[in-house]
Amino acid sequence: MCRSMKNVKGVDELLDNIDFSALIKRRLFLVLATIIIALTAGGAACMILPAKYQASTILRLSQPENGSENSTGANRMDYNSLMMYRQLARTYCELAESEQVLRKLSERVEHSLSSGDLRRMITVRKVKDLELLEILVKDTDPYRAAFIAGSLAVLLQQEEKEVWKMNNLQVIIPASPDERPVGPNIFMSMLVAGLAGALIAFMLAAVLEYTGSWRE
């Protein structure tokens, strides 16, 4: 126990006394080699991973027209309607990612994607402070991504009519294929790989410095 405590104390004293600039100079080859290897691995990973494309469509929840501004009752009704439609928007988000809807969507893509695959590809969110829903789809095929986003919007409208007997959802921005990839983010991947490589290099250099000093 006393021996281990002395070793820990010795490590702390060594780290306090290490001149990191001198350490880097002495272990420059190790530091550079580790960083280069990490950058190469990060770049290779980006080259191997398929490009991802994103398509989106936006739907609006139609609202009843506002009443007279001079009528307190009408204003209260407008506020209540606003709260109701915001809650509906959250409900539609959950419905869009439900197993029932995703199974129907899987049928539309001829079962080339399972409901689980689609769930990982799709994000449905409520646009902040607005009665808007945004459907985002990421896929390796930009045209299939647009097709899935548009099909999900249609399915939501159908579910609304069949389940709630309502017709509030309207597509205001239809999905269209975008051939500009959104991922993988090469710059971010290289940055993370470089930082990780630098951290590993400094740790290795410090360990080698400690073991060398300890042997002495």
Produce the secondary structure layout:
Blueprint: H1 2-17, H2 20-26, H3 28-48, E1 53-61, H4 72-96, H5 99-108, H6 115-121, E2 122-126, E3 132-139, H7 142-164, E4 169-173, H8 186-215
Antiparallel strand pairs: 1-3, 1-4, 2-3
Structural class: alpha+beta
CATH topology of the largest domain, which one? Alpha-Beta Plaits
CATH class of the largest domain: Alpha Beta
Rounded to the nearest angstrom, the radius of gyration is 28 Å
Describe it for me?
Mean pLDDT is 80; it is low at 1-6 and 66-77. The protein has two domains: 2-49 and 184-215, no CATH class; 53-173, 2-Layer Sandwich (Alpha-Beta Plaits). The protein is α+β, with helices and mostly antiparallel strands and 216 residues long. The protein has helices at 2-17, 20-26, 28-48, 72-96, 99-108, 115-121, 142-164, 186-215; strands at residues 53-61, 122-126, 132-139, 169-173. The chain is elongated. Strands 2-3-1-4 form a four-stranded antiparallel β-sheet. The longest helix is centred in the C-terminal third of the chain and has 30 residues, at 186-215. Helix 3 packs antiparallel against helix 8 and helix 5 packs across helix 7 (142-164).
